[in-house]
Amino acid sequence: TQSTGKYLRLHDYHQKLNVTLSKLEVIVKDPNEELILETSENYTLTVTTESATLEADTVFGVMRGLETFSQLLNTYNYTLPSVKIQDYPRYKFRGFMLDTSRHYVSVSVLKLIIKAASWSKLNVFHWHIVDDPSFPYCSYTYPDLCEKGAYSPNHVYSQTDVLDIIVFAYRHGVIVIPELDTPGHTLSWGKALPGFLTFCPGHGNIGAPYGPVDPTNEEVYTVLKQLFAEVTTVFPAEFVHLGGDEVHYPCWKNNENITLWMAAHNMTGDYDALENYYEQRLLNIVNSLHKNYIVWEEVFYHHVHITPQTIVHAWKPNWKSIFQQATSAGYRCILSAGWYISRIYYGEDWQKFYQLDPRSFNATATPEQLALVLGGTVCMWGEHIDNSNVVSRFWPRASAPAERLWSPGYITDVAFMEPRIEAHRCRMVMRGYPAEPMISRGYCQFEYSWKRKHN
């Protein structure tokens, strides 16, 4: 637990004292139900031979405590240990990202993932909702974006679907932050917006004659202002993710109009400057909408003028350098480098996820720098997942970094974690999830059955 500085070895408690209860008393101190990164998730859970009490500052602290209470249950004899736990998260930002552009994931499966995330006390759903391959988000401002940019009318998220996901996530203590990545990763936008993308035959994205957004086209900024005005209204989160990674410069270099425009604006040959010009105008638009934003690390190291509230999202192997520079400059950071769980490795890859700590970027970092590290996000990119396998690919592998983001920094023992993550996997199986085995041998008391699940 956070308060005692000692491991909670549940099997020892079960052997010493089993408790049978008829009720759990829940006490919430603050009736305010606003869910933001600063929302308290603290709780105190007390189980004795006579009673059980869960106290929390907010209803979201109650959610975390109820999950702990459920995990204390011995499913072999349905007893509980006598114990007192005072708990709270180490990091405020404990995210999971899902890409729903490369392959579509249905609303019902998204809900399964969100529910499982709450079991691991994750609190942010980073929804990478659109990208080059498809635009499944159905905008009411630009309906052609999904009508022409989605794979089919069956592979879209209506406004009703989006609201359903936001409300469902809220009820599980999860904030939904959308990502509309620009100026790269926008091929699907172009089908509905003529002139929005850069025309560059032979140098475009994934075999197309088009590349990134054309930053010299003034109409682009009109579209962005109207679309982000909608998105920042539909999604109530305090942040929107603006992307900003992997901009394909060869396309810009091979467009004559862009070359002439750059010459007229004293940018000849400086494509970093062109990207910065675009990003600055986009950030100014979002600033005018009074929304904070998250950006991939490229926006920071290209020296775009970002607000002090910006969160820098590191995803490349040199993340320690990015964290050192960003926190030195006073910016908050989150980590995804090393937590790309869409990549499959032979063996027990959860161990390296578990051992990665976002605050390990510099042994001499100041307390002020460490405080600017908000946490991280587990990433599931969509190249090789869809409804058929995304749940088992996610869980319980994502639970390893989830514990790193919640639990105290001193809990790092892989040997101590191994039986617990496998127990958590079996708990998910018992709850009806096709969660993957985490260790090379073993079994669950209740094995998963496709027949039982789907009949």
Helix content: 25-40%
Biggest sheet: strands side by side, in what order? 9-8-7-16-15-14-13-12
- Please tell me the overall pLDDT: 92
User: pLDDT below 50 for ≥5 consecutive residues: which ranges?
Assistant: 1-16
Strand content: 15-25%
Structural shape: globular
Profile the largest sheet: 8 strands, parallel
What's the end-to-end separation, in Å? Answer: 41 Å
Total number of strands: 16
Helix/strand class? alpha/beta
Total number of helical segments? 17
Radius of gyration: 23 Å
What's the layout of helices and strands?
Elements: H1 10-16, E1 18-19, E2 25-28, E3 43-47, E4 52-56, H2 59-72, E5 80-81, E6 83-87, E7 93-99, H3 107-119, E8 124-128, H4 144-149, H5 159-170, E9 175-179, E10 197-199, E11 210-213, H6 218-234, E12 239-241, H7 249-253, H8 256-264, H9 271-288, E13 292-296, H10 297-301, E14 311-314, H11 319-328, E15 332-335, H12 350-355, H13 367-371, E16 373-380, H14 390-394, H15 399-406, H16 414-430, H17 450-454
Helix pairs in contact: 3-5, 6-9
Describe the protein in words.
By secondary structure, the protein is α/β, with parallel strands linked by helices. The relative contact order is 0.11. It starts with 9 loop residues before the first helix and ends with a helix. Mean pLDDT is 92; it is low at 1-16. α3 (107-119) packs parallel to α5 (159-170). β7, α3 and β8 (124-128) form a beta-alpha-beta unit. Helices cover 36% and strands 16% of the residues. The protein has an eight-stranded parallel sheet. The chain has a four-stranded mixed sheet with strand order 2-4-3-6, with helices on one face. It has a two-stranded antiparallel sheet with strand order 1-5. It is built from 17 helices and 16 strands.
